[in-house]
Amino acid sequence: xxxxxxxxxxxxxxxxxxxxxxxxxxxxxxxxxxxxxxxxxxxxxxxxxxxxxxxxxxxxxxxxxxxxxxxxxxxxxxxxxxxxxxxxxxxxxxxxxxxxxxxxxxxxxxxxxxxxxxxxxxxxxxxxxxxxxxxxxxxxxxxxxxxxxxxxxxxxxxxxxxxxxxxxxxxxxxxxxxxxxxxxxxxxxxxxxxxxxxxxxxxxxxxxxxxxxxxxxxxxxxxxxxxxxxxxxxxxxxxxxxxxxxxxxxxxxxxxxxxxxxxxxxxxxxxxxxxxxxxxxxxxxxxxxxxxxxxxxxxxxxxxxxxxxxxxxxxxxxxxxxx
Length: 323
What we know:
This protein is of the alpha/beta class. Helices cover 36% and strands 19% of the residues. The protein contains 14 helices and 14 strands. Strands 6-7-8-3-9-10-13-12 form an 8-stranded mixed β-sheet, sandwiched between helices. A hairpin with a 2-residue loop joins strand 9 (207-212) and strand 10. Helix 3 crosses helix 4, helix 3 (87-98) runs parallel beside helix 7 and helix 5 (116-123) packs antiparallel against helix 7. The longest helix is centred in the middle third of the chain and has 18 residues, at 170-187. Residues 84-88 and 123-136 have low confidence and may be disordered.
């Protein structure tokens, strides 16, 4: 997929997604991570057809999403939105969207099967008293809980979510995540989500896609991405994870250099202006050529010029301290 967006202050087009090529298995949980501006939200918006790619295709079961109606697409893709303000109608909205002729009783039955009420009631003490009250305004955290429930209510095959638990208090994030995983497993829904919290990513995802300046720089299973060898950017991301446990040792990696803009991307490797491994990989090579996608093992891939020997020298960023 290639996608370009216009920066109206410059009236130029910036490459937001640069030749992405990936397959996502049905029923998997895939996390998209990376700094702001990496292209994570743009990729999900392309899937929802809020944008259209300039090149490439997005296929679901081999069918180009551009060849199906928006109604059919939205019946298959649920979205965790954060702008919900009314409780009653929004829970059943996804179900009604795909089942126009369904009675209220049928909608409620479908919602019960999706465990929507159980999901929301466990997350909000006030839910039971709020049911049936029209016009009840929800807090920011409650909106997000209802948004998660709403996305799963219509038996969507794919659910996309941008920071699905970020607005919740830390004290309830684990409970929300557990319920999210339970619903996803039961319905075998494909979950695609963005998160800047790598502890949530490690707990919730099967696979992780690390993005930087429109490129997928690393992709693999969660265990692969959280263990060396890493892409140098992944290594730096892991070093920024806050860890309070004194039994865990963590490298402190400082990235220097300029943070590039999508309007004026660097030549060669997108990460070369900040990479601590550039001298090992070959400075002139990194600055002049976009790295090829390298397959490491069992579907683990990185986009980097480092040699196999250099990758083998990488040590864990996070590890248990010696007793």
